[in-house]
Amino acid sequence: MENEDEEWIESPTGWGPKEDGHDVIDDVGLPDIFASDDPTECFTFRMRVDGTTTPKTVRLHGYKLDSDETYRSTGVTLWQASPRLADYLGDHPEVCGGKSVLELGAGLGLCGIAAHYSGATNVVMTDGDNRALDRMRENVRRNCDDVGDASITGRNAIACRQLIWGKPHAGKFLERNGKYDVIIGADVIYTRESVQPLLDTVVSLLNEPNGQFVLSRFCRWNNVDDDIVIKAAKMRFLDCTRPSEGIYVFRWSDEKNSNAVDEKIEDFR
Ligand SMILES: C[S@@+](CC[C@H](N)C(=O)[O-])C[C@H]1O[C@@H](n2cnc3c(N)ncnc32)[C@H](O)[C@@H]1O
After folding, report:
1. Which residue in 54, 112, 135, 254 has a CA-CA distance of 20 to 30 Å to 209?
2. How far is the C-alpha of 79 from the C-alpha of 43, rounded, in Å?
3. Separation of 79 CA from ligand 1 center, angstroms?
4. Which domains, from first to last, does the chain contain?
5. Cβ(142)–Cβ(110) under 8 Å?
6. Which CDD domains does this one have (predicted)?
7. 133 or 17, which is more confident?
8. Whole-number pLDDT of residue 244
9. In what order do the strands lie in the sheet with 122-127?
10. Strand, helix or coil at 226?
């Protein structure tokens, strides 16, 4: 699967002010001329492991927040929402324990690795960006023993695949991989344009009726307020609860009716 990735870099010319003023990530500014020459960074995280009292130290290799690499591909550094979601999954092992888990926009891969260690039966971490996928695959190889497909290894497995958000890619991904009990995402909403394709992807790949989409967001990049996200989810029959600060859990609403979904989304656009 790894060699079938298509070429996709999140922002080949880098992030910055665009004409409509939307695509601006304030904290990823121009490179600091006083910064160290070495753009790489190792992020260390202590993780609870399901069924043991000994925490696991996970080391993720990526790039500094203010590096040129991050300026083009946000997924090659670790964002604030990721350690918080990883903590949440560790504190609530019932969320991923015994479940199939899909991560969207996984970047360096911390949350998927946390889901793996909190007892998920099968974790598939995804990203659209080739550079992020390279880093993610390397980090999974370094930090996880059971890399592969659960149906082959018969053990808890973790794999990395490319998934670009939106209905066309999600449809193909569904044919190959099926649906998931839990979908997770950290810091994956930072442009208005990404809200619809991200949620379309969730709707395509989330198991019914008990699937959950767990989203972690702490920064409101580009003024993408919670209301925008919650309303777009509601149009897709996903109801939101907020079990703790920055954590949003979306579940299928009782009124879900597949015939009405597409009409409702069209109304919203
Ligand atoms: C801000 S980073 C967050 C990375 C990681 N979840 C974290 O919190 O450290 C956003 C991630 O979403 C991915 N992404 C953005 N737009 C995407 C799209 N349309 N399809 C797939 N991945 C996308 C980026 O490549 C990047 O890895």
Report:
1. 112
2. 11
3. 10
4. 81-268 (3.40.50.150)
5. no
6. AdoMet_MTases
7. 133
8. 94
9. 157-162, 122-127, 100-103, 182-186, 212-216, 247-252, 238-244
10. helix
The SS3 assignment for 63 reads: strand
**Ligand 1 atom 10: the closest Cα is on which residue?**
188
User: How confident is the model over 177-186, as pLDDT tens digits?
Assistant: 999 999 999 9
Structure tokens at 37: 């020459």
Tens digit of each residue's pLDDT (9 = 90 or more) over 13-37: 888 766 555 555 555 555 556 656 8
Residue among 182, 35, 201 nearest 116 (CA): 182
Give the DSSP letter of residue 19. T
**Percent of the chain whose pLDDT exceeds 70:** 83
The protein residue whose alpha carbon is closest to atom 12 in ligand 1 is: 105
Concatenated DSSP letters for 159-180?
EEEE--SSHHHHHHHHHHH--B
Q: What is the mean pLDDT of residues 163-188?
A: 97
What atom in ligand 1 is closest to the CA of residue 103? 6
pLDDT of residue 1: 45
Helix (H) or strand (E) holding 231: helix 226-235
